[in-house]
Amino acid sequence: MALPRILVLVLAGGAGGRLELLTEQRAKPAVPFAGIYRLIDFPLSNCQNSQIADVWVSIQFHPTSLHDHLSNGRPWDLDRTAGGLLTLPPYKGTERGGWNTGTADSLWRQAAQIREFEADALVVVSADAVYKLDYREVVEAHLGSGAEVTMVTTEVAADDAPRYGIVEVADGDRITGYAYKPDDPATTTATNEVFVFSPTPTLDRLEALNSEVGEEGLEDLGTHLLPAQTADGFARAYPLGGYWRDVGTIPAYWDAHREFIAEEPPLDLDAPRWPVHTRGGRHSAARVLSGSVVEESLISGGTRVGGEVRGSVISPGVVIERGATVVDSVLLPGVRVRSGATVTRAVLDDRVEVGADASVGGDGEITLVGREARVADGTELAAGARYPEPEK
Question: Which of 214, 286, 360, 392 is found 20 to 30 A from 274 (Cα to Cα)?
Fold first, then answer.
């Protein structure tokens, strides 16, 4: 029997405002993670390991940062003569041209191209979560269910549930209720932004909804489309049994890094059967100088550590001079921490320089320093500071 024809659409066009300074000059899916990776590496690696070769990436904000990383798709075996990786920027020239105003709106704008592809299943995923998932297995379950949409679900903390689409499930996998970011969630079962759609009925439904909502617009998938599919009885759940972490906020981003510096991290990023691939990734070996201290940390290639590093994630090209101390922090590529400086519970963006004897962060809220900022010698940035302060 022939394999189903699968198209994956990666929605990588969101502004990512909740990541604050980290997305001021880059797309959210291009934000670094765990030293050498970018967030978009996770869905792309899932595609490769699921043996799915047709992947479209919808981009919008700071597209250059994504283009530079995606290149021709080679790290994920998507550099094909036919098919492979295709990027979808905003465009003009038809009634569907223009700026995307939400995930459902983005899907509607690409409807003609999706119909022309004639896929048996359309997999729509976001690019701001860390997880591993065989998309092909979800597709096979979807095609055998008679559903119009299969939503991959996971359990979340009760106090975190209002951030997600929340579902109620009966009879094993039948979704009987769906609420998008509800104030009072009925359950803690959340969609994890992986959806498998039957293309033709879904796109037909989008067309009908677009006519009904008028100037309000289709907005996000959870605004009109998923509630309508649920109300008509065409939605099914597919529980994700493994690790999944949304890293779309600074606290969540920091927490996820804390999980990956544990003695047994939640995912093996180098697992031979399901590796996570990225562009580049080749650096000289990390140099840990005599007298330095490194404990419970991830140290990437191309780094130089002369001071103390505890409970932190150190990205490629970072230099921590002798006498400097970094604790419970995430340092992105090219950061330099000068002698005598301390960095505590902080996230430092690309090429930040912390001057000699400066102090960044402390116990309490996470401190965030934006790309290429310089913290002057002897400066003290309190816990929870944003530097430079965001424009109002």
Answer: 286
- CA quadruple 117, 119, 122, 126: dihedral positive or negative? negative
CA distance 175 to 339: 57
Q: What is the pTM of this model?
A: 0.88
The CA distances from residue 16 to 69, 108, 120, in Å, are 17, 21, 31
Q: How far apart are CA 124 and CA 220, in angstroms?
A: 12
Long-range contacts at 115-119 (CB < 8 A, ≥ 24 apart)? 115/199, 115/200, 115/203, 117/5, 117/7, 117/54, 118/5, 119/5, 119/6, 119/7, 119/54, 119/199
The three-state secondary structure class of 105 is: helix
Question: What confidence tens digit (pLDDT) does each residue in 111-149 have?
Answer: 999 999 999 999 999 998 999 999 999 999 999 899 999
For the chain, give the mean pLDDT. Answer: 92
- Report the sign of the C-alpha dihedral through residues 314, 244, 276, 83, in that order: negative
Q: Where are the domains of the chain?
A: 6-260, 287-387
Domain 287-387: homologous superfamily in CATH: Hexapeptide repeat proteins (2.160.10.10)
Closest C-alpha to 133, from 152, 161, 156, 155 = 152
Model pLDDT for residues 17-26, shown as the tens digit of each residue: 889 999 888 8
* Residue ranges in the chain whose pLDDT is less than 70: 1, 16, 93, 281-282, 392
Phi then psi for residue 237, to 5 deg, are -105, 145
Task: In whole angstroms, give the CA distance from residue 17 to residue 202.
Answer: 29
Report residue 364 as tokens.
């309490």
Q: Give the sign of the dihedral formed by CA 221, CA 135, CA 112, CA 129.
A: positive
In this structure, are residues 17 and 248 in contact, taking their beta carbons and an 8 Å threshold?
no
Check if 6-260 and 287-387 are the same fold.
Answer: no
Angle at CA 203, nearest 5°, toward 106 and 151?
80
CATH code at 6-260: 3.90.550.10
Q: d(Cα 340, Cα 1) in Å, to the nearest integer?
A: 66
